[in-house]
Amino acid sequence: MSTSVLDMSVSLDGYVADPDDFLGGEDGERLHKWADAKGESARTAARFQEKWNAAGAVLAGRRTAELMDHWGGDHGGLPIFVPSHRPPGPAARWGYPLVTYVNDGIESAMAQAKAAAGDKDVQVRGAYTGQRALEAGVLDEVQIHQIPVLLGRGRRLFDVLPSEIELEIAQVIDTPEATHIRYRVRR
């Protein structure tokens, strides 16, 4: 059975990007520096990379998909599902056969992504889409890479939620560069 996982790097004050959609710091990549660590932290990053590579599909918000140019038409060979009320742009419509825009809601988009993933994970990309998946009850897990930095402004991961959502901690891995916490969504 497929598991849907929102996987995001986040600052201690809850931001996933600065106001210009960069990932913080002078080079715009502060929130992802942990993945380039050395020593034991590098082994931890490699384990996460293996999990991402073992996924079966991606569910990405339209903003995220467009900012990433739909990852060139696939996300490491994975099909990409984009919930949206508007039709895709020309690249996604004609040039990217593994990109599917779904216009009948987040539940349908997740069902299609899980069907494509089979028994592998669905990687969820984008704060807004993660929030909507939580709201609809179709997100199974949240993987947070909490970075020891305060960005002070930008785009928050959980800006607007409909109600309190209970989570249970499934795993914690602490490294000097980040604390990685995996939660299960309680239903």
Helices and strands in order:
Elements: E1 4-11, E2 15-17, H1 40-53, E3 57-60, H2 62-67, E4 80-83, H3 90-95, E5 99-102, H4 106-117, E6 122-125, H5 127-136, E7 141-147, E8 155-156, E9 167-174, E10 179-185
Parallel strand pairs: 1-6, 1-7, 3-4, 3-6, 4-5
Antiparallel strand pairs: 2-8, 7-10, 9-10
What does this structure look like?
- The structure is a single chain.
- This protein has about 190 residues and is α/β, with parallel strands linked by helices.
- Helices cover about 25% and strands about 25% of the residues.
- It has 5 helices and 10 strands.
- It has helices spanning about 40-55, 60-65, 90-95, 105-115, 125-135, and strands spanning about 5-10, 15, 55-60, 80-85, 100, 120-125, 140-145, 155, 165-175, 180-185.
- It has an 8-stranded mixed sheet. Strands 2-8 form a two-stranded antiparallel sheet.
- β3, α2 (about 60-65) and β4 (about 80-85) form a beta-alpha-beta unit.
- The two termini are about 15 Å apart.
What is the global morphology? globular
Spatial separation of the terminal alpha carbons = 17 Å
Relative strand content: 25-35%
Q: Could you describe the largest sheet, including whether it forms a barrel?
A: 8 strands, mixed
- Name the helix and strand elements from N-terminus to C-terminus, one letter apiece: EEHEHEHEHEHEEEE
Provide a count of the helices.
Answer: 5
Low-confidence stretches: none
How many strands? Answer: 10
Short description:
By secondary structure, this protein is α/β, with parallel strands linked by helices. The protein has helices spanning 40-53, 62-67, 90-95, 106-117, 127-136, and strands at 4-11, 15-17, 57-60, 80-83, 99-102, 122-125, 141-147, 155-156, 167-174, 179-185.
